[in-house]
What does this fold into?
Amino acid sequence: MNGTSQTPLAAQATTLPGICLDALRRHSKPDALNQKRGGEWEHIAASSVAARVRAVALGLASLGVRAGDRVALLSENRPEWSITDLAILSLGAVNVPIYTTQAVEQVRYILSDSEARVLFVSGKKVYRHARAGVEGYGRIERLIFFDAEDAAGQPDASTLEAVEHAGAERDRRDPTEFERLLGAIQPDDLATIIYTSGTTGEPKGVMLTHTAFVSNVLAITSALPVCPDDVSLSVLPLSHIFERTVFYVFCWNGVAVYYAPSVDQLGEYLREVRPTIMTAVPRLFEKVYHRIVKKGTSARGWRRKLFTWALETGKSYAELVDRRERVPPLLELQQTIASRLVFSKWREGVGGRLRFFVSGGAPLSPALSYAFLAAGIPILQGYGMTETCVTSANRPEDNKVGSIGLPFPGIEMRLDESGEILVRGPNVMRGYYEHPRETGEVLDAAGWFKTGDVGYRDEHGHFFITDRKKELFKLSNGKYIAPQQLESLIKQSALVNQVVVVGAGRKTPAALIVPDWEALRGALADAADAKESKEPEGRKKSGRSEPVALSRDPAAVKLVQREVAALTASLHDYERVRRVALLPEEFSIDGGEMTPTLKIKRRVIDEKFGALIDEIYDGANLAGSTSKDE
It folds into this structure.
């Protein structure tokens, strides 16, 4: 399936720097890594990447870094992240990545727990956020900035350029040292300690070996059509196991990687880079989808009708394709028209040549998947955890909406008696660093890792996740609720930006919703026009206070509540969401409600919004809520 000519496994390198440096030489691409500087794209050739990895590794050796030492890396996405990562690994040292959004106390904890000696930082803006955590640790021997101008005035600070220069000098004195260092690394040596995002308690350091990554790279390569002609846009944090593993896959297969430092310029970068393959998380797809729907439904007259018709046609078409059922000739014709008049603009918006997206990190709404599938932009949902790397994914020729696909070759997945998904294979972690008890709780003697996700497998072998085992909650009637399943349904609404389902110990579930304010205002205006009534007071206001007023507007609450009730109407009576509260501000990392990987911290939300949750069920001051349990 792969377009690259591969040598037999026995002849391949068995360490991460081994396979990546081999691939850089083998493909010799002029645009292996790419970033935008001063409004222009800068292309870094494969030979230059390999030379810089070599120089940085030897420069670190000059600073006294040895095999097994911990080196932390704190940076947004950029070529230096990947170059430094491979350099650390080439020494046999251990990379400890830290999210740029990590809370200060967690930065301190990670540095302290891993006993990091050296810290790479991209620039002063990132360092300013983390500085208190670094100084609180107090044992960093050398601080190395990617941006040279930002190192000035920092004690014990150096620059990546200086480290490279020292490494190049060392290489001239002994041209054989780098190969000796590289050859001393063993496949079962520790490559990285990645700290879990910590939805509960302190993060734990996941220990992954070179074998875990290399086996994963080769397994993914054997199952997905990735080739040297592909171009990728890297937007997820490289600190995340998903994007980091994917980078190694792309490097091995000679894919040109373009870096997007944040999602703010995503639309611009998509149009300029025109990727053929890309990874993302559902939150990104949701934002893109809602932006498209907002634009389409804001049109007037026949344009709006055409957009709505195309969405409905596409959904009907995609559902039949997904179920492997025959598409009637009339619907086939309608889909062709919808594709040409409406969906072609979607494809242009993501560059016009995207073969497929790969989604991971959280469940993906089926309605959203159907919409993109109808537009000719298939999203292959995959699955993995920090502890397991990437374990499964749908294939372009066998894509089942709603599922996490089939396991990659060499990886076993099964369900235990409770429905929990278990994973076994060379990709699984060695354990949690300095946490043997916690390791024993999730990793048994036979090598099976307990993922904490519950689900089922269909007759074709595709796995489906229904929820996190620990996030299931019990209603007062003894019935269990799977909140992620409900949230996935509710996110289909264009009025919903974010949603968290609550209700432990209550008679029915409820939802805390951050609306898409523009879509909500438009829907309220349409409803007001239809009833020939005045706008509610909240919509007459402008500025920062508007979302606050709208979130308490009875008409707004009632409108969202009706939509949520309709979306959950097909569920069992006890699962239906009939009560909602609107929140004026998004859940965020800074607010403490989300992890750096954008997972919801449910315990934090239960505590932070406890009074509001009580208010929902009491019905007080929420005109849109019902006054009693249905």
